[in-house]
TrEMBL record:
Keywords assigned: Calcium, Glycoprotein, Hydrolase, Metal-binding
Chain ranges of the Sulfatase N-terminal domain: 64-376
Superkingdom of the source species: Eukaryota
UniProt GO MF annotations: metal ion binding; sulfuric ester hydrolase activity
Species: Serinus canaria (Island canary)
Needed cofactors: Ca(2+)
Biased segments, Polar residues type: 1-11
Gene, per the UniProt record: ARSJ
Pfam family, one: Sulfatase
Annotated Gene Ontology cellular component terms: actin cytoskeleton
Species classification: Eukaryota, Metazoa, Chordata, Craniata, Vertebrata
Protein name (Swiss-Prot/TrEMBL): Arylsulfatase family member J
Length: 587
């Protein structure tokens, strides 16, 4: 494509040859220009151009049905085609007949990935850049963000969500049905019991967490395992909808997130796994694989399949202490090492041009927003500043990705690295701050990047994972900057920050540029009114609008009084304040 070989070759250059690709960092400004051109997902292009000029094979008869399946905490290794001992025949077959995404990134935790999927924006642009939304926090995805289902509804889609929300619920306006979904059946929190749908956030702060639309679904409290219950709901939705009308179905399974629970029959193939967490995890994944098979059978049975696009993704890396495996990647869920953010993902669709292929181009979870809206023949408003790109041609036709970088995150309130400093960041960036960025082949991490071990499969042979089996890392004291060539070294074993200081500086500048666009972090303290005991034993909206109005009216009155007082003081003390400022300036 007329670019240097170090850009276009899917093969990995040797780490010592990384200087050949130093220009990649310098291409950042060009990447920005490309981003401005493609930032709105090619909304101006005719939808037919994306799927083939002729309305023959490979082109939809109409707007495609979109089925987005999001697994929870599935590790990078935890799929058959990545070498897992856990059998996933459905996922393997769907991926083999579709397009495997083998350079695909998400965020390291639940809320961040879900927020970026549904808005097409990085966390720094929604205020959700720190941790997750806790059950007791008066917080949710900011209401001024347009969501994917809202945009799809504009062009005639029926929109349905089944599964885990985890984007906040303290106000009624935060609920899924208020954010673009015609129907919602699932849980609001990040985790809970798979059978009782009960969750304790802390001792005494416990409640029921299963909803149908805006109300607690007590009628469904029948002890049905959530993976199976959600699949039954999907089957009902497909059976009752007209397949001639487009549907967006967002299926966010609870599996394979802890607690580790599964029906007994799924254990039969995994008795030989000694590690109890890994054995339970394997059973949960086997049940999930069967569930996805049942979803695809329903798509065929009710007439959706031929005009459908099925996207499968994990929301973040696996958690080894809870049975997940990211081998041979480094780190785990909750970290910015590859094991936390490089995900299992594929697209399966009769509408794909290059079926049975592997996409090694850079794709990020924010890209689904513009990609799916464009496929749905929707328009992306000019004033929506997206961080995602339309990557359909990249996936379907094997073209180059418009994406040249990914801001993995900047978290200004995460625990600061003790030895981080502006000096370590060449005066460009404070390396005490947790951040990570990818530009072409290069990846830079600063601050405290989190649990950094490699956890090989044999670590699960005992009751562990046994830390003795892990490859431990002892960095020299004071280290707060890492640089890797991910194409050459996907397992992050060779730190090149000392060898390539110019590349480090380029990526630090890029971080600094991103940081100038960040909005303040939203991470409020917990609200005692969130206690389910005050809400009929259910986790649900607790912040009442009338209370809010009363408070805002009071605060407006108080603010007026304060302003009047300030004005009076200012007029009395103008000279004094001037002298005070001049003394400070002189000191």
């Amino acid at each position: 494509h007329g670019q240097p070989s170090c850009w276009s070759s899917p093969q990995s250059p040797a780490p010592q040859d990384c200087h050949l690709c130093e220009a990649a960092g310098a291409k950042g400004s060009q990447g920005r220009e490309r981003k401005q051109n493609t930032r709105r997902g090619g909304a101006g292009e005719a939808p037919g151009d994306l799927l083939g000029e002729e309305p023959a094979a490979g082109a939809p008869r109409s707007q495609p049905h979109i089925i987005f399946i999001l697994a929870d905490d599935q590790g990078f290794r935890d799929v058959g085609y990545h070498g897992s001992e856990i059998r996933t025949p459905t996922l393997d077959k769907l991926a083999a007949e579709g397009v495997k995404l083998e350079n695909y990134y998400v965020q390291p935790m639940c809320t961040p990935s879900r927020s970026q999927l549904i808005t097409g924006k990085y966390q720094i642009h929604t205020g959700l850049q720190h941790s997750i939304i806790r059950p007791t926090q008066p917080n949710c995805l900011p209401l001024d963000n347009v969501t994917l289902p809202q945009k799809l509804k504009e062009v005639g889609y029926s929109t349905h969500m089944v599964g885990k929300w985890h984007l906040g619920f303290y106000r009624r306006e935060c609920m899924p049905t208020q954010r673009g979904f015609d129907s919602f059946f699932g849980s609001l929190l990040g985790s809970g019991d798979y059978y009782t749908h009960f969750k304790c956030d802390s001792p005494g702060i416990c409640g029921y967490d299963l909803y149908e639309n805006d109300n607690a679904a007590w009628d469904h409290d029948n002890g049905i395992y959530s993976t199976q219950m959600y699949t039954q709901k999907v089957q009902q939705i497909l059976a009752s909808h007209n397949p001639r009308k487009p549907i967006f179905l967002y299926i966010a399974y609870q599996a394979v997130h802890s607690p580790l629970q599964a029906p007994g029959r799924y254990f039969e193939h995994y008795r030989s796994i000694n590690n109890i967490n890994r054995r339970r995890y394997a059973a949960m994944l086997a049940c999930l694989d069967e569930a996805i098979n049942n979803v695809t059978l329903a798509l065929r049975k009710y007439g959706y399949y031929e005009n459908s696009i099925i996207i499968y993704s994990s929301d973040n890396g696996g958690q080894p202490m809870a049975g997940g495996s990211n081998w041979p990647l480094r780190g785990s869920k909750g970290t910015y090492w590859e094991g936390g953010i490089r995900a299992v993902g594929f697209v399966h669709s009769p509408l794909l041009k290059n079926k049975g292929s592997v996409c090694k181009e850079l794709v990020h979870i924010t890209d689904w927003f513009p990609t799916l809206i464009t496929l749905a023949e929707g328009q992306i408003d000019e004033d929506i500043q997206l961080d995602g790109y339309d990557v359909w041609e990249t996936i379907s036709e094997g073209r180059r990705s418009p994406r040249v970088d990914i801001l993995h995150n900047i978290d200004p309130i995460y625990t600061k690295a003790k030895n981080g400093s502006w000096a370590a960041g060449y005066g460009i960036w404070n390396t005490a701050i947790q951040s990570a960025i990818r530009v072409n082949h290069w990846k830079l991490l600063t601050g405290n990047p989190g649990y950094s071990d490699w956890v090989p499969p044999q670590a699960f042979s005992n009751a562990g994972p046994n830390r003795w089996h892990n490859e431990r890392v002892s960095w020299s004291a004071g280290k707060t900057v890492w640089l890797f060539n991910i194409t050459a070294d996907p397992y992050e074993r060779v730190d090149l920050s000392a060898r390539h200081p110019e590349v480090v500086k380029q990526l630090l500048r890029r971080l600094s540029q991103f940081n100038k666009t960040a909005v303040p972090v939203r991470y409020p303290p917990k609200d005692p009114r969130s206690n389910p005991k005050l809400n009929g034993g259910v986790w649900g909206p607790w912040f009442k609008e009338d209370e809010k109005k009363k408070k805002s009216d009071k605060s407006k009155g108080a603010n007026k009084q304060k302003k009047m007082k300030k004005k009076k003081k200012a007029s009395r003390k103008k000279g004094q304040s001037f002298h005070c400022r001049s003394r400070l300036a002189g000191g």
